[in-house]
Write a structure and sequence with these properties.
418 residues, mainly alpha, 20 helices
Length: 418
């Protein structure tokens, strides 16, 4: 049987369906990532009143999940190598569920912070393990597209969180709505947990753990046409991996990629994207919109983010990373200038049409450029010997700045008098 015929069998048989099933289930971790990250946007004013928070501590309440994300993204790698991808995905699903329930039933601010920190750990872990698992069970010719499902699901999760917040706000009394908004994440978390039991373990991890018979069984379930060859290839690829533990990242020859990774992660967040994602309803209320209208406008923002993220997936390889970054940066500057001018002159009052238009343009430019390029760019600029460490540095910079922006935005908004 030639390789093309074998590949076609693989793509149409039960094996490929198992790959798709595993990829879609793992990608739910990305959807929960986006949902759990952005759902706080609809609750900020209620939390400020319920727990008597000033702007500084409101920002901290939002940012603590991102602090957990930093820890989770760094801490999950070794456990995933020790106990396997599937068990870690189960743990992450459980953490999502515990976080959602904990937020919903919180009676004190400390309890709410603890629950959000747990959710942040799950978000950070999912950002690493979900795409890792998908890459390890996917055939090479479909790997890029299947891994992209996880990234796309993050954006879908953000949109769903805005939609969920809007629906809850219409039917639940305002003093209870924040509990439902944060607690509703428990439903997809429970579904995620149950579905994980029906996916296969990563054959690559099984080989690494020395469980060759189980790896052979999984490859057979996936209808790998040449099981023994695939096993040998996996073993050989592990032997040929560079000894990354012995190569220092911070040395002169890696100065340029280090600076580039830090710069793109830094400016990705300094553009203000998380201020918009987490405080969109507040921004629209600052512009004069009523609460219901502000949440509806947030749905528009989430929809634009999704559409232009999909568009970027089609154009990123055609036009290149630099072109997308340059086009998007110019567009973001123009749109944010429009928003700033509308606020400074008072033109944002009475519905915030100018601000809504400016933010839609800003989100479109961000999604089409920096939002789509950052992780691809960081993964490509480091040589193999320090790639993992370089990606960790870029990830840390990104999440650290995300926490800083989320924490400080309410304070800056108060100081500005908006």
């Amino acid at each position: 049987m030639d390789s093309d015929t074998a590949q076609n069998i693989r793509l149409t048989g039960t094996g490929f369906r198992a790959v798709i099933h595993g990829s879609v289930v793992a990608a739910l971790g990305g959807l929960l990532f986006g949902f759990d990250t952005a759902v706080i946007s609809g609750t900020t004013e209620a939390l400020k009143i319920r727990f008597r928070l000033d702007s500084f501590w409101l920002g901290f309440t939002v940012a603590i999940a991102l602090i957990g994300t930093v820890v989770g993204s760094f801490a999950v790698g070794k456990p995933a190598d020790i106990v396997g991808r599937k068990k870690i995905l189960l743990l992450l699903a459980a953490l999502y569920f515990v976080s959602a329930v904990g937020c919903a039933i919180s009676t004190t601010w400390t309890m709410l912070l603890a629950a959000r920190l747990v959710g942040g750990l799950a978000i950070g872990g999912a950002s690493v393990v979900a795409p890792m698992y998908i890459a390890e069970i996917s055939p090479s010719r479909w790997r890029g597209r299947l891994v992209a499902i996880s990234q796309l699901n993050i954006v879908i999760g953000i949109l769903l969180s805005y939609l969920s917040n809007y629906i809850v706000a219409q039917y639940i009394p305002i003093d209870l709505a924040w509990r439902w908004m944060l607690g509703i994440v428990a439903i997809p978390s429970a579904i995620f947990f149950v579905l994980i039991f029906k996916i296969v373990e990563s054959p690559r991890w099984l080989v690494r753990a020395g469980r060759l018979e189980e790896a052979r069984s999984v490859l057979t379930q996936l209808e790998e046409p040449e099981v023994e060859k695939e096993l040998r290839d996996i073993q050989q690829s592990m032997k040929s991996l560079p000894d990354q533990s012995g190569e220092a990242l911070f040395q002169t020859r890696y100065r340029k990629p280090i600076l580039l990774a830090i710069a793109i992660a830094l400016f990705n967040q300094l553009s203000g994207i998380n201020a918009v994602m987490y405080y969109a309803p507040k921004i629209f209320q600052m512009a004069g919109a009523a609460q219901g209208s502000a949440m509806l406008q947030s749905i528009v923002i989430g929809s634009v983010l999704l559409v232009f993220t999909v568009a970027a997936m089609f154009f990123i390889d055609r036009f290149g990373r630099r072109v997308l970054i340059m086009i998007g940066s110019v567009g973001m500057v123009a749109c944010l200038t429009l928003v700033a001018r509308a606020f400074s002159t008072g033109n944002g009052l009475g519905g915030g049409a100018i601000i809504l238009a400016g933010l839609i343009g800003y989100i479109a430019c961000f999604a089409f450029s920096s939002g789509a390029v950052i992780w691809v760019f960081i993964s490509e600029i480091f040589p193999n010997a320090v790639r993992a460490k370089g990606q960790a540095l870029g990830s840390f910079t990104h999440w650290f700045m995300a926490a800083v922006v989320s924490w400080t935005f309410p304070v800056v908004a108060d100081i500005s008098g908006a």
